Amino acid sequence: MSPAESTEAVKLSLMESKTLLFGATGGIGSQVCTRLLDRGYRVTAFVRSSSRLPEPCKGHPLLTVVEDPRGHLALCGREFKELVDGHDTVVQCLGHNLSFSGMFLPPRRLCRDTVRKICGSLNGPNQQIKLIVINTEGVDRPDGGDGSVRGCCEKVILGCLKCCIPPHADNVATLSCLDDLASSNPNISFCAVRPSDLVDKEPSKYEVHETLQNGIFNAGETSRSNVGEFMASLVADETLWSKW
């Protein structure tokens, strides 16, 4: 293939690819949205309020905004399926606001229920998608693949958090849901991204590991910009996607 043909193939791939993004107004979702648009990918962002989108994304010709103040969980099954149809990648960057209402009032299983609706909407023979979900290093792999990084004290604390703090319970339930529903759905290939403590810093070199490297007591820092870059790269780079 000549360089010109290769360039045209890349352009055609970008034109055909379309990503559905939940959480585009959040700290990580805004990073993912900006980076995908910068790379020439078409993005559909479902938001409660378009005014909260990052400035570089507002009015972007490659961005389609679906705005509903009720939130996506209020959509019926048919409406949600219509939203997902036509996309080859779904990115979920949802989280709970660190306020009383955000932590303790409905929807208390925002992230898990979103994964359920995504998986439930994909039941056709030709609906192949990549599903990329943000989570946290405070949650273990359901298959036990993280090994013995955590001590007994840490496990007890995380168990208490699961019982007392709904956002943590939601994160645990989300990985379990991925393991149960997405793993058994031949239409879905997925990756859950579990960063360390999130901070707002400029992009930098970063490392990605398949298993936990630290417990919550000695967790490192991860910049939201680096997480956004990695998740956008999972969408754009097939070699990277095949690895993870």
Summarize this structure briefly:
This protein is α/β, with parallel strands linked by helices.
Topology:
Elements: H1 3-16, E1 18-22, H2 29-38, E2 42-47, E3 63-67, H3 77-84, E4 89-92, H4 100-104, H5 110-120, E5 129-134, H6 152-164, H7 166-182, E6 188-193, E7 197-199, E8 221-223, H8 224-236, H9 238-243
Parallel strand pairs: 1-2, 1-4, 2-3, 4-5, 5-6, 7-8
Distance between the termini: 28 Å
Q: State the order of secondary-structure elements, H for helix, E for strand.
A: HEHEEHEHHEHHEEEHH
Query: What's the overall geometry?
Result: globular
Give the beta-strand count: 8
Helix content: 25-40%
Task: Characterize the largest beta sheet: strand count, sense, and whether it forms a barrel.
Answer: 6 strands, parallel
Question: Can you describe what's shown?
Answer:
The two termini are 28 Å apart. The longest helix has 17 residues. The N terminus is likely disordered. The strands form two sheets. This protein has a six-stranded parallel β-sheet, with helices on both faces. Strand 1, helix 2 and strand 2 form a beta-alpha-beta unit. The protein contains nine helices and eight strands.
